Amino acid sequence: MVDNRYATALVISCVLSVLATVYLSVAVGTQHWYQYTSPPVRGEANVSELRSLHDEFMDGEFDEKTYSDTLFRLNGTIGLWWRCVLVPSHTHWYKESDPKMVMKCVSFTLTQQFTPKYKEPGNHNSGEDMLRTYLWRCQFLLPLISLGLVVLAGLIGFCACLCHSLTPTLGIGMLHLLAGLCTLATVCCYLAGMDLLHRVSVLPDKVDGSLGWSLYLALISSPLHMMAAALLVWAARSHSQNYYRMTAYRVA
């Protein structure tokens, strides 16, 4: 028999876990982790340059400097698996005073995720930047690990419900704690990687960068996982102590 306090804690932890998992899943699948605000283009002077940047961004070979420069110049957004630019919907660039803008995105392939970063973006002779390389790899591997831990915890919890046992609850709580730490580490790796990129890249004048809502979703999911873990651990420990006390009382 499960005490009502423990049952309530388990229900609340399940709700927190579901919310955290949904937030993290949405964050991983969207591209609004970091976004740039570029100044509007006046006249025809830079139209051909911007068009070539856009074409290279959409169809050219993968190159960090090329896609970074395009993101800087075309109101780009970048996530864990996507990079996008904001361009006019028609082929005649910047002919209208207020053209309709559309977002065009390109996904990072798995091979591109493991591509080394260089000390000078675009210059392969400058040597590999190990710190940026492993920060980039960690930022897309850690959320996948976090989601995997939550799925594993859910499977264990489902089996525990079928067996009417609270014994695995402590382990489920520890899995949620690890998931929360992995998510927090993802955000930290991403922010550190972007800061290092901006140090080695030259941002054009009047280009501003800001954090996007996808990153905030991931940031919110981390404490939700940890709160779920705290409730699960409390329920497991309290129920265990209460069980041992009742057993000792009956023996006495």
From TrEMBL:
Say yes or no: keyword Ligase present: no
> Which keywords, in A-to-Z order, does the entry hold?
Membrane, Transmembrane, Transmembrane helix
Its placement in the membrane is given as: Multi-pass membrane protein
GO cellular component terms attached to this protein's record: membrane
Q: Which Pfam families match?
A: Claudin_2
List localization entries.
Membrane
Note whether Transmembrane helix occurs among the keywords: yes
State which residue ranges cross the membrane: 140-163, 175-193, 213-236
PANTHER family this protein is in?
Answer: CLAUDIN DOMAIN-CONTAINING PROTEIN 1
Protein name, per record: Claudin domain-containing protein 1
Source organism of this protein record: Oncorhynchus mykiss
The taxonomic lineage of its organism, from the top, reads: Eukaryota, Metazoa, Chordata, Craniata, Vertebrata
Q: Corresponding gene? A: LOC110500788
